[in-house]
Amino acid sequence: MWDGIFAGLDTAIAPFNILMVVVGCFSGTFIGMLPGLGPISAVALMIPITYGLDPASGIILMAGVYYGAVFGGSTSSILINAPGCASTVVTAFDGYPMAQKGQAGKALALAAYCSFTGGTIGALILLVAAPALATVSLSFQSSDYFALMVLGLSAVAAFSGKGQVLKALAMTIFGLMVATVGTDAISGIPRFTFGNLDLIDGISFLLLAMATFALAEVVMSVLKSEHKLEEAPMDMSALGSMKLTKEEVKHVAPTAARSSLFGFLVGVLPGAGATIAAFLAYGIERNLSPRAIKEKFGKGALRGLAAPEAANNAASTGSFVPLLTLGIPGSGTTAIMLGALIAYGIQPGPRLFVDNPEVFWSVIISMYFGNVVLLVLNLPLIPYISRLLIIPRPILIPLILFFSITGVYLVSFNSFDIELMVLITVIALFLRLLNFPMAPMLLGFILGGMLENNLSRALIISDGSLAFLWQRPLTALIMSFAILALVLPIVGRFFGWRRMEGKADMNVVDQGEG
Amino acid sequence: MTLTKDHIGGLLFLALSVVYGYYAYEIRMFPGDQFEPFNAQTIPRALAWVGSIVAILMLATGSRSATERLSFAGLDVKLVAKLMLLVWIFAQALSWLGFLLSTIGFLLVGYWLLGERRPRTLLLASVPFAVGFWFLLAKLLDIYLAPGQVWQWL
After folding, report:
1. How far apart are CA A222 and CA A216, in angstroms?
2. Is the ipTM of this complex over 0.90?
3. CA A205, CA A336: separation in Å to the nearest integer?
4. B58 and chain A: CB distance < 8 Å anywhere?
5. Which of B12, B30, B84 sits opposite A426 (nearest CB)?
6. Least CB-CB distance to A394: which of B5, B6, B115?
7. What is the DSSP letter of A231?
């Protein structure tokens, strides 16, 4: 393990890779600050750039963008009450009231420190948990993988929020259907190509990610005429002090530690992600606080800001555990990273730890560097980065559209891909209007090929019998979790268990979820 | 009966699953593949069935509240249609006019559609950007960008 850590450290401290962390954090912060564009879009926009890099640098850049986008989302939540992504919606509950009281600087600093705490604790647990899980998962067979993928996909539906379970499930199936377009990898037979040669290779995941997130989110803002709205002016001179007193640090330290641990655990669950971690951590912290502090929640409570910030960053780190060790993404953003890794020819999963230790460890180590960059460089530079937001929307939107389109075009040099993007964007817009979440579709699409491969292997080994689902104890255990994940929310709704989730509106999960 | 978003979604998904299922059964296979435990039709057929069941569940359990009706009021559908058309034209222009001219045109029209009318801003935000981006790709990164068929004819 130590050899791997040193190899990863060697890769992570290469000047070019440190530059990638810095560039990633900066561009992520900027994109994350734009309301509507979340970490998924930010990472998707980076994919074409990463194709020209080696796998470790590419993934390091994407991880930097991920953190930066979550941090940028917090910044716009605090300064203008416009969360850049769903996972920072809760940040605005107490962050914005603080800014209104003239404590914007303090709120930003607290958010950065808590993000740093969450990220650090998350990275440390990841350092221990990921290799342990990877070692265990080396003994997994194709039937276990099939069951794990079913669990991953059903968990996405289970965590999708009130009234959304069936819609998320439908979108997952839709993603799996889209994944079957093109030549069947096992038999070599074309499926659903309708004689179109451009569809023989299937639909590229980059195209689908760009069309359903980057393009659809921007076009959605046009559809809602948000581009005509004037951005609330940010008075950078009124930021106030960025210093926290000793008492304030003492006051929030236990909250940050608790929420980090909790956030990490929620992040590890496939499909849960940073948004649910932030909402739940906020709720838990409010319930744990004494009455006097509880009443301050929503009016600028320090703990109310610390809890979601620590939790969402720790959850972002936690979502890398299933990605790196099992090859199953824990969130929409890690799903995109999984697609990028596969495009590099790297198969994430337990073998990644053995076959590409430099990628495995450099990603984990650079996550920590990313947190340091956010704290040391981004925080003091926030007033300057925010100035980029004064670019008028009528100029910014065509530029984002252009980057999304050319990002796909420059990989294939096929204008058919752009036409297909238009079609998919229109479908995605309509589905968004019908309140269908997009992340499950992407997850289904990315896992579709692997799911089919593992099922075919398991079925051939068991001579066509489905008994492999219950004959092997591990497969049976994972399958029962998958069934529970699907059945519990539906049964729970009948018994009103959902009320326990409090006021937190989980439906935001589908909006720019990380 | 009120047709809500859930019902429209359910109906659409049911239609998709049925059409997908029809074509799933039409997937050609090698002789004897139908006797194999797993073939090219296995997953598509399963997806079509599961999709149909989920769609029926959506229709059965969908919200019946009148507030859940699909409404396009207040949505600028025309502008989005124009933007999407612009992207489609950009795709055609890339092979006819080449990357540089298509990009300049796309950005100019895009800014214009979204309400920017100042000629100076329109030009400054499109021409230098497109030239700079083209220079970065074609000259610095050495990526081949086809010049466009029109220029080859001239």
Report:
1. 10
2. yes
3. 8
4. yes
5. B84
6. B115
7. P
